[in-house]
Automatic annotation (TrEMBL):
Amino acids binding FAD: T154, G193
Stretches assigned to the Acyl-CoA oxidase C-terminal domain: 487-667
Protein name (Swiss-Prot/TrEMBL): Acyl-coenzyme A oxidase
Span of domain Acyl-coenzyme A oxidase N-terminal: 23-148
Subcellular location: Peroxisome
Cellular component annotations (GO), alphabetically ordered: peroxisome
One GO BP annotation of this record: fatty acid beta-oxidation using acyl-CoA oxidase
Stated family: Belongs to the acyl-CoA oxidase family.
Source organism of this protein record: Papilio xuthus (Asian swallowtail butterfly)
Catalytic-site annotation from UniProt: E437
Record's keyword terms, sorted: FAD, Fatty acid metabolism, Flavoprotein, Lipid metabolism, Oxidoreductase, Peroxisome
Acyl-CoA oxidase C-alpha1 domain: residues covered: 291-452
Length: 671
């Protein structure tokens, strides 16, 4: 954070910091995943942020579309040199996935870098889908930025249904080449970040044909532009998809092929190969390993959701400590809006959710690494569970994060609507994560497939995998006894999930018994399947969050343990109150217990209140990363709003030319 001198800090924020009764740094270590990670992040920030501080002369949002893109490319080049020459020096290759790198990128770009997909998907796909020889060829070029890549899977006509993609890659043994072709308008690749004007290479997912047979979708590395002139190659039509709600500097593009040839070796051959004579050879032991990059990105998106929500919460909580409004008690000063319980209700769940998603995200990352290690040994048994886990966690975390970021904006009143608050840009960025890398509903339905199968296994007494082990107890189908202890609440959330999954399974069984096909019975049950999947995910987040808080605070100071547990309890109680209908149905909770729960929630808000600013300070965002007039460390909200307003091009002159061109003629009846 940029602390400045204490004298510059808003007096209300100063007082808030004196009230804080826990060691902020200990919480920062927990959030970052350990002291070593925090130290590494700070080191990276110290190097990168000196340059970021003066990277923009004019605020990004004041530039026109083309200037914004050019400016984003300029900054991406500066930033990638820092990554290459300095950050990787500090930490080695693992810096690519480190929170430090992710955070510093935000100091350079308020919107999105056109290079993001290069690092976010192009490089990971080379690592995940290429043979060691192919990696040796492509990876150094990509890391040195000699080539810049995009990931083009989605088409104009299909995003979700990958098997329905229309782009073809037909093998020609005579020349040992693949011929890429876009047979229809709807087969045009659409949306790929960095593709429109920036990338010179692209991973293209296409239907592979060899010896007259289709073998389904496979990834290919495709050079699309000349490395010197940057002109698209003949047979390649590429451009920008048009103005979007956000991501306007991300250069999302379209791409069409007209019988465009690439060498056979450009097929990414880790999981399947085409031999010189056109023979197709399957290498992978699991059908869906070509979807590996998507699983990887879904896993990272859980922490990405936490990170962005933490930023919004920091902005809104600091602002709420500075902002004073109304006079609930006559004759008394206007209170800080953070003192209103309704404001606490809006904001403390944001802090708690950021913790819940970050700790669950770290746990998911470790699970992902364990599954990868199994797969390196040829064991793919745990892949379906990882797919189910990452699908629902990606869906719920991005959805919650987007909704709560918008809540933070509401919590900042009119000033939250200013782009300079950074809340609108944060929202437009995060709301896209609910859609990309697998739409919310679609991914919850993927998890639901796994859950229904697990339910059937539970009913037949089979051993269940860890994340669904709770279904075994629930197979008895009795209401769970309600208790407002943490364990009791988690048991009740699991009972809700189990009850909903059971109801789905029964519904499907009932429909198929009366002659409905399994596919139709599934479709007729999808509204409840999505709800069951979400309930399962919520129970899992509650369990993982509480488990991680207990584990990570075991050796912390007592005050840190208390405040971390208060937040985690708040998260559980909040969701119990949000889902009272479900609890009434699947647990023994009654009216008096619901009243008790409401009181407990209000008590928790009051307990967390004195530590609210300390808790957001513990996210440890430097001002350069927050980019917010409302959320800076010093709380000089009004001064910053005014300074930023004066940077608007509309304030460059006291009279605009439009006055002379239109308004005056209109007033004089001469228009
Ligand atoms: C210099 C640098 C400068 C700046 C850099 C700045 C910062 C960079 C730093 C870091 C970046 C930080 C963070 C972000 C990182 C990157 C991301 C950023 C942006 C991303 C942009 C978005 C990119 C995209 O959107 S790419 C396109 C994604 N598309 C999708 O997700 C499509 C969704 N659809 C599907 O996944 C599938 O089609 C489906 C799952 C819906 C169905 O598939 P299919 O029809 O084939 O299968 P089914 O028949 O339904 O099922 C068959 C069985 O297979 C199982 N299954 C399905 N999928 C999987 C899987 N992935 N793994 C395992 N198993 C799977 C399924 O469950 C069925 O099983 P069953 O047993 O039969 O039930
Ligand atoms: C900002 C942004 C960046 C992107 N970047 C990339 C990129 O770099 N590379 C890339 O390849 N793609 C990218 N995408 C595309 C993205 O992955 C897809 O948009 C996403 O997977 C959703 O697919 P879709 O657009 O086809 O939606 P659709 O599948 O058409 O969804 C529309 C609606 O139909 C519903 N629906 C669809 N199928 C089902 C079903 N089976 N059951 C029930 N409901 C269903 C959905 O829930 C949704 O409500 C990006 C998208 C965005 C917004």
């Amino acid at each position: 954070m940029t602390k400045g001198t204490q004298a510059d800090v808003n007096p209300d924020l100063k007082k808030e910091r004196l009230k804080c009764n826990f060691n902020i740094q200990e919480v920062t270590f927990i959030i970052d995943g350990g002291k070593d990670k925090t130290l590494q992040r700070k080191k990276i920030e110290d190097v990168a942020l000196n340059i970021a501080a003066s990277i923009d002369e004019v605020p990004e949002e004041c530039l026109n579309l083309k200037e914004r893109y050019d400016n984003a490319v300029r900054k991406s080049c500066v930033y990638s040199n820092i990554v290459k020459n300095e950050l990787l020096e500090i930490t080695g290759l693992e810096a690519l996935g480190s929170p430090g790198l992710r955070r510093t990128a935000d100091a350079f770009f308020k919107d999105v870098s056109p290079f993001m997909l290069h690092l976010g998907m192009f490089v990971p796909t080379i690592i995940g889908q290429c043979t060691p020889e192919q990696q040796a060829h492509w990876l150094p070029k990509a890391l040195e930025m000699q080539i810049i890549g995009a990931y083009a899977q989605t088409e104009l006509g299909h995003g979700t249904f990958i098997r329905g993609l229309e782009t073809t890659a037909t093998y020609d043994p005579a020349t040992e080449e693949f011929v890429l072709h876009s047979p229809t308008l709807t087969s045009t690749k659409w949306w790929a970040g960095g593709l429109g004007n920036t990338a010179n290479h692209c991973i293209v997912v296409a239907q592979l044909y060899t010896k007259g047979q289709c073998h389904g979708t496979h990834p290919f590395i495709v050079p699309i532009r000349d490395l010197d002139t940057h002109e698209p190659f003949p047979g390649v039509k590429v451009g920008d998809v048009g103005i979007r709600m956000g991501f306007n500097t991300a250069d999302n593009g379209f791409l069409r092929f007209n019988q465009y040839r690439i060498p056979r070796e450009n097929m990414m051959m880790k999981n399947a190969k085409v031999m010189k004579d056109g023979t197709y050879v399957k290498v992978a032991r699991h059908e869906k390993l070509t979807y590996g990059t998507m699983v990887f990105v879904r896993v990272t998106l859980v922490m990405e959701a936490a990170f962005n929500l933490a930023k919004a919460a920091t902005i809104a909580v600091r602002y709420s400590a500075v902002r004073r409004q109304s006079q609930p008690k006559p004759g008394e000063p206007e209170p800080q809006i953070l003192d209103y319980p309704t404001q606490q209700h809006k904001l403390f769940i944001c802090i708690a959710t950021a913790h819940a998603l970050q700790l669950t995200g770290l746990w998911l990352w470790r699970t992902f690494e364990a599954v990868l290690a199994d797969m390196r040994k040829g064991d793919t048994d745990s892949l379906p569970e990882l797919h189910a886990l990452s699908s629902c966690l990606k869906a719920v975390s991005t959805s919650d994060s987007a909704a709560l970021i918008e809540q933070c904006r509401f919590a900042c009143g009119g000033h939250g609507y200013m782009l300079s608050s950074n809340l609108p840009l944060l929202y437009s960025f995060v709301t896209a994560t609910r859609t990309y890398e697998g739409d919310y509903t679609v991914l919850l339905l993927q998890t639901a497939r796994f859950l229904v199968k697990a339910w059937e296994q539970a009913e037949s007494g089979k051993v269940l995998t860890p994340t669904v082990a709770y279904l075994a107890c629930a197979a008895a189908k009795e209401k769970v006894v309600w208790s407002d202890s943490v364990d009791g609440m988690i048991r009740s959330f699991q009972a809700v999930a189990a009850g909903k999954i059971a109801a789905c399974a029964e519904n499907i069984k009932r429909l198929t018994k009366t002659g409905t096909s399994l596919e139709d019975a599934w479709q007729l049950s999808t509204v409840r399947l999505v709800a069951a999947s979400e309930a399962h995910c919520r129970a899992m987040i509650c369990q993982a969050y509480w488990h991680e808080v207990t584990r990570l605070t075991a050796s912390c100071s007592a005050s840190v343990k208390i405040v971390m547990e208060q937040l985690a309890t708040l998260y559980l109680v909040y969701w119990a109150l949000e889902t009272t209908g479900d609890l009434l149905r699947y647990s023994t909770i009654c009216e008096s217990e619901l009243n008790k729960l409401q009181l407990k929630y209000e008590e928790l808000l009051a307990l967390i209140r004195p530590n609210a600013v300390g808790l957001v300070d513990a996210f440890d965002f430097r001002d350069e990363i927050l980019h917010s007039t409302l959320g800076a460390y010093d709380g000089r909200v009004y001064e910053r709003l005014m300074e930023e307003a004066l940077k608007s091009p509309l304030n460059e002159t006291s009279v605009q030319s439009s006055f002379h061109k239109y308004i005056r003629p209109l007033a004089k009846g001469k228009l």
